[in-house]
Amino acid sequence: MTEKVLQYLRDNREAQLHALHNFLSIPSVSTDSKHKEDVHQAAQFVKEYLDKIGFDKVRVQPTKGHPLVYGEWLGAGNDAPTILLYGHYDVQPADPLELWDSEPFKPEVRDGRLYARGASDDKGQVFMHLAVFEAFMKTEGTLPINVKVCIEGEEEIGSENLYDILTKRKEQFQADFAVISDSGMVASGQPTILYGLKGFTGLEFTLHGPSNDLHSGLYGGAVRNPAIAMAHLLASLKDQEEVVQVAGFYDGVEALGEEERRLIDNVPGENYQESTGIPETVSEKGYTAKEHTMARPTLEVNGLFGGYQGEGTKTIIPSAATAKITCRLVPGQDPDVIQGLLVKHLEENVPRGVKLEVKREPLSAKAYKVDPNHPLIEKAAESYTKAFGKETVYVRMGGSIPVVEWIESIYHMPIVLLGFGTPEDRLHSPNESFALDSYDKGMETLVYYWNAVRND
Amino acid sequence: MTEKVLQYLRDNREAQLHALHNFLSIPSVSTDSKHKEDVHQAAQFVKEYLDKIGFDKVRVQPTKGHPLVYGEWLGAGNDAPTILLYGHYDVQPADPLELWDSEPFKPEVRDGRLYARGASDDKGQVFMHLAVFEAFMKTEGTLPINVKVCIEGEEEIGSENLYDILTKRKEQFQADFAVISDSGMVASGQPTILYGLKGFTGLEFTLHGPSNDLHSGLYGGAVRNPAIAMAHLLASLKDQEEVVQVAGFYDGVEALGEEERRLIDNVPGENYQESTGIPETVSEKGYTAKEHTMARPTLEVNGLFGGYQGEGTKTIIPSAATAKITCRLVPGQDPDVIQGLLVKHLEENVPRGVKLEVKREPLSAKAYKVDPNHPLIEKAAESYTKAFGKETVYVRMGGSIPVVEWIESIYHMPIVLLGFGTPEDRLHSPNESFALDSYDKGMETLVYYWNAVRND
User: Fold this and answer.
1) For a disulfide at A364, which of A45, A159, A335, A424, Cβ 3.0-4.6 Å?
2) By residue range, what is the domain housing residue B432?
3) pLDDT, tens digit, for every residue of B429-440?
């Protein structure tokens, strides 16, 4: 039965790619109100495709912003699991247009890659699911699993209305587990299971000194310089061995076990010096760069400013200095607790002579991690390996995907992140593309996977 | 003889103030090329006044920029000293105009103060000298001293051409000592001898990390954050007790003796909390705020920046962070040596993982200090006290006046800083003014002083 489905995909490759071209031709830029109609048209494309395949209850579901598309096919029976498939049909703006080698909304294949805005993030990956469902339905008349499809139109603007809908319509989206294909592989052709994401919290703080910038000659020696006070306070947050010095910061963080260290060690590493131009990598004492980026919490200064920034010299004592900091968190760390510890540290360590003002960042996210030995994860890894002909690697990532945290916190269901992007995809940048090799082998992976999980 | 001169000043107060009004009415803004003619007209005013008094060799002397006015009167004979009088006839721009209560170039007297741009800095103080010379010449037909007058037109733009002229025409400006009236008293009505100025040196440095801002989730843990590296490096320059930690920084700085501590203690202190809004003063360990500001070197961050400065959060690792620092120096510290020590400290303490780039500030100044017991200083103090009816205080100041350093280094002559401004004068700001009480008593001081130094 698998072979027939795969054969359908091979036989209909041109026609399906043609449909994907049409999908990618719609400039569904969610952040730009002049593309409102286009966004709606892209939703309509997904709806019509689901209709065509034979899904039920297919609809463009309105929100306060851009609509989401819902559809379900629950004909696999009670023995088969029900999965919630999440993706998004909206895209990032395409500008600066002059940096594109072909037009962002006129898809073009060059050297085995499909170039278009959204080719990888996320229309291409959403379409792969539609194409695979089509192949099952056209050859078998059925899917191996029950499916609820939720494709939203506001991911690129922070999924503004999704949390609300997921909370209010729990019945509609309830499933056994969720699958999200909105991420990537660590290298082209390298099957990758993303089994953990970091959470985050942040704040901005200002050290206020004199009410105005002061003459450094007349006041230097009497007035604490807020920029130097800032240096002392920031330096107290993290030492030069990259160990965060905030009391309680690491409380509850689970130790990195031997198995996980081995998983991380198996992941092909990025050559950071080459890709970022840094003279050397620097990581937390006792951890490699891969271990620290994937599995250990971080604290970063995202912005820092105070005083004169123009050309040359202005001999002032600045009236204030400000820093923006965010932390990436791992399981065991609660974002609100960590934010509180940061504030406490700042309050306790603020140098004399300046006043501390803290603005807490209201957005936060909990870290997410699934057991890499979970059967759903193991089957995903096996399916990847079968399709790509290569051992699957397991990674955790420093980024956060809000929808992952929401699905977990609202539905308490496992989430499988099946991503097919490659590091060369240039998401959010000019010349976004998607490797057709990933497209073909990714669909093959999905065919194997749905068959594999059918009886779980 | 003194009484006749003073009587002349009283009898001719109206006429002289009228002339000062005319002087102040000329918008001689040296930084603004559309005022080039006005600047020249102000020079012409000074020239004509010197002519009228009976000075010799009076001329508007061209430079590459705005001219200076020179004139001399050497009729006091070989027994009398020759003094070089320095001042400037150019002024700061007047904007923002809407913050002035009367027009900046229409002088107006309100509540015992003369309001106009330049009233205190420095036209008013230059004019006082002219008026006093006039009084001597009209009543005695002679001055008690020989005088060379040098009034420049580029002080507010860094005295660009003065150093060159002072160096090339040593014969022309050579004298026994110099007098400069371009400063102020520590409080209205409080005679003040300024016997020391700080020098300065500075530099800007940047810590370069990745070639672009990076995603803090993907790279945090592998890449040193330049803003945090900056915090560590800046914090290493000065500890929280305000002691500079740069090796060799204090080498050669003379200890603050008991006599000087007493002089400084006598100076009425500024209430820094009130005037600047700071919660408390912070000074170098072992020194009071007055001692540190007046007589101890300082290191300040004038500007600090890196990464995101907009609203809210942007989760990046900045590609670089930059700091601008300047030091105010005291006698015994060579600006070039100190700059070199700073660079060495930065090079030796730069955290791993970032690259240091240093831009040395080319401008620098040596500190200046004259012995407060020098007879020329003692006589100035006595003259002040006689005119103002109050004990003179002795101060050193954290600022630098480049011309002071130049006159000292080129001519090796004592310099007496006879300033009559008050802290309320609002130099360089809207509503600049000059207290007429300072104007009258300042001229009286000058009359006493010229008589007192006649036979030195």
Assistant:
1) A335
2) 2-197+367-453
3) 899 999 999 999
